[in-house]
Amino acid sequence: NLDTTATYKEAEVTHLCAGDTWGLCTTELFGMGMDVPDITIVVQWRATCGLSTLWQCWGHAGRALGESGTAILFAEKDLFDDMKEEKRI
After folding, report:
1. Strand pairing class (41-45; 70-74)
2. How many angstroms separate the CA atoms of 57 and 14, rounded?
3. What are the pLDDT tens digits along the chain (89 aa)?
4. What letter does residue 15 receive in the DSSP assignment?
5. What whole-number distance in Å separates Cα of residue 45 and Cα of residue 38?
6. C-alpha 16, offset from chain centre
């Protein structure tokens, strides 16, 4: 959906908090300013940003008191080529 207005965002976050929506697939921009404490899973597709940005995104999971969270990173295999080369040496 290309409708990225503030009204759309507020409506979708309301649906998420109410349990009407199970999850959202969003851009980083959509997630900015979201304060939803009971997020349990954060999935990041591709490592297109720095570690501090990833850490901030992952920090959205498990923020509610007594909750735990899971962060999953789907990364390109090219990022691990150096590690594979080191193991060969």
Report:
1. parallel
2. 20
3. 555 678 888 888 899 889 898 888 877 777 777 778 888 888 888 777 778 888 888 888 888 888 889 989 888 777 777 766 777 76
4. H
5. 21
6. 14
Mapped to the 3 state alphabet, what secondary structure does 19-85 carry? CCCCCCCCCHHHHCCCCCCCCCEEEEECCCCCHHHHHHHHCCCCCCCCCCCEEEEECCHHHHHHHHH
Separation CA 27–CA 12 (nearest Å): 13
List residues bridging with 44 in a β-sheet: 73
How far apart are alpha carbons 30 and 8 in whole angstroms?
A: 10
Rg (CA), the chain: 16
Q: Which two tokens stand for residue 70?
A: 């899971």
H-helix or E-strand containing 6? helix 6-18
